Structure formats: structure tokens, C-alpha cells
Amino acid sequence: MVPAQNVASFRRAAPFGISVILPLLVLVAAMKGGWFLLLPPLGTWWLYTGLDAVLGRNSENPDPEAPEDQLFWYRLITMIWVPIQFAMIFGILSFVVGADHLSTGEKFGVFFGVGILSGAIGIVYSHEMMHQTNRFERWLADLLLAMVLYSHFRTEHLLVHHPHVGTTRDAVTARYNEGFHRFFFRVLRESPVSAWKAEKSMLARRGLSVWDGKNPFWRYWVLQLMAMILAVIIGGWMGLALFAFQAIVAIWQLEITNYVEHYGLTRRHLGEGKYEPVKPHHSWNADHQATNWLFINLQRHSDHHYKPARRFPLLQTYPDDVAPQLPFGYVIMGFMAMVPPLWRRRMNPRVRAWRKRYYPDIEDWGPYRNGTLPPPAIR
């Protein structure tokens, strides 16, 4: 175990902070065009995947009791990304719209790179901050999500996904044999609705209408509208199209990650809509070192669901006998998910092995696979 004083050091935090220089790759792509458009995916997805092959896995666990005041550098990394992302999106937008050296296709290529970073980094950092009780960090999380037009994700993630993961109420728990493309459009359709219902239920318990000003959807809508208006002011309709395109790319990356994290894993139904508590074996775990730097330990997902409020530098990894393991990091697994036959060939045997290990007494997996079990009650 890594002692608390070592966890707090700048040297241990620094690899997670390399992300703050990645927008330079997008800037170069915007200035040069052509083959330079490959810089963002090469420097983000493939660089870290290559480093995984060199550095391997890191099964070392930090002291989970390290105090909050020793995590300054880690918190700074996530908070400083908000102005960086704002400058990256809207600064590059103002440059690209009037750039004569870029074709229309190249302009969208630049914003594909922007979407890589606003998704792989921005949404992941937002996810970290939305789990904290600090109001300032939660506001920063909302700002990041507004910049990718996916603000409802905060409500859906905190009020639906975490309490109901592995059940039929959680849209983002991918079902066994469900291909990513079907999953993606199902989640786009179901998640906003489930988020709205969760907020409605919470407000009702307080005796408030769903249209009350305390409903965070008002904030979500205003922030997203402001982001779109700014895009139009900067670049007109082309600016709005480019802004929306990077948001789609970011959302696509988020939902690939959601797909990978829980594919085929379910919680035991105890009868009458009740399910067993969430345990580490209800999420796929991965401890590939470099990709965990990029995704700030999100791959230690088993522990994140077991202890949702635990900050990313303190997340634990688990051995094979405690949590199911992914064969590769999120990037490779994400590309594999884009080809459903390849994904099923690789992952379905692992799901079946998981079933035998943790639930050898369950003989009929049909209701779990088909999503026909009764949903748990909304909290």
C-alpha cells in the first residue's frame, strides 16, 4: 500500500496532469490541417494505449484514508481543466470558422479532435467532481457537461446509475449480447427520461413541483443554451454545427465507456423488485497504468461503485477473485465494442465465467439478459 504522504506528492500526481497540455495537439491540427488532424487521436488514444503495452499494469493501492488536504494536486488537475476546455472549444472555434486554409471537412476533423478531449478528459473530470459534496466542484462539473450538451448526465449518473446499476432500471448497464450501437441509441433515448423522473421523484418527496426552480434541469438548460448561443455568436451556424459535432463525439466516448464498464453484469434479484447491494464484482476492473493516467483511475471502476465518493487518486484495484478484469484498457475495449461480433467473441465467455463464479445457483439467465425483471423502486 502506498502511504498517504507519498500519495500526496506532486511526483505521483504529475502523470495524471499531462492531460492539460493535450489541447496543444488540437491547436496544431487547426493551424496545419491535413495529416496533422491525426494528432489528437494519436496523442490521446494511441499514445496511452502504447504506453500500457510498455508500462503494463499497476496493482499498487494507495492508502484510502489519505486526508482531503493531501490531495491538492489531484483536485487542481480536474478543476483547472474547466477554463482550459472552454478556451479550447471556443478559442479554436473562433480560429477555425474563418480559416481559409481548412476545408469544411478539415474543420470538422479539427472538432473531432476537440470532441476527443472534451469527452475523454472533460466528461471524465466532470464525473469526478459531480461525486463530491463541494458545491464549487459540482458547479464545475455542470459547466463541463454543458459544453458537450449532456447536462442531464449528472442527475442520471448520481440518482439512477449508481443506486440501480446492474438492474433493469439502469439504462447504461449494457445487457448481455446487446451490441454497442443498439445500446448507444437506447441510452440516448432512455437516460434523459430516467433522469427527469428521478428529479421529479426527489422534488415530490420535498413537496415541490417538477417545474420548481430547485429542479437542476433549469440550470442544465440555461447553461447549454448559453454555450450554443456563444457558439453562434462566434461562428454563426457553422460555429454551432462544429460545436454540436464535438459534443456528439464526446457523448459517443462517454457511452462507449459506460458500455464497457458494466457489460453483461447484473445484481441478483431477491424478489419483489429488490436487489442485492452493489459489490466490486458488479463492474469490470482494469489497472492498465497509462490509460488510468488518462482517465484518472476510472478503470478502477469496481472500487468506484463500491465507494462512489472516494476521490480518484485513492481508488483501489482488485484481484481476479474479487472483481472481473478487462483484458485491455478502455481505449482498445472501446474500439472492440464498435465491432459487436468481435466484442461478443472476446467478452461473452468472460461474462459466462463471471456467472459461474458468483452465481452458480442461477440456472435461468433469460430474465436478466432480456431485462424483464421488475425494476427497483425509485429512491
UniProtKB/TrEMBL annotation:
Species name: Aliiroseovarius salicola
UniProt-listed InterPro entries: AlkB/XylM (IPR033885), FA_desaturase_dom (IPR005804)
Residue intervals of the Fatty acid desaturase domain: 110-333
Keyword Nucleotide-binding: no
PANTHER family documented for this protein: ALKANE 1-MONOOXYGENASE 1
Top-level lineage group: Bacteria
Record protein name field: Alkane 1-monooxygenase
Keyword Iron appears in the UniProt entry: yes
Location in the cell: Cell inner membrane
Pfam hit, one: FA_desaturase
TM region positions: 16-38, 72-96, 108-126, 225-252, 322-343
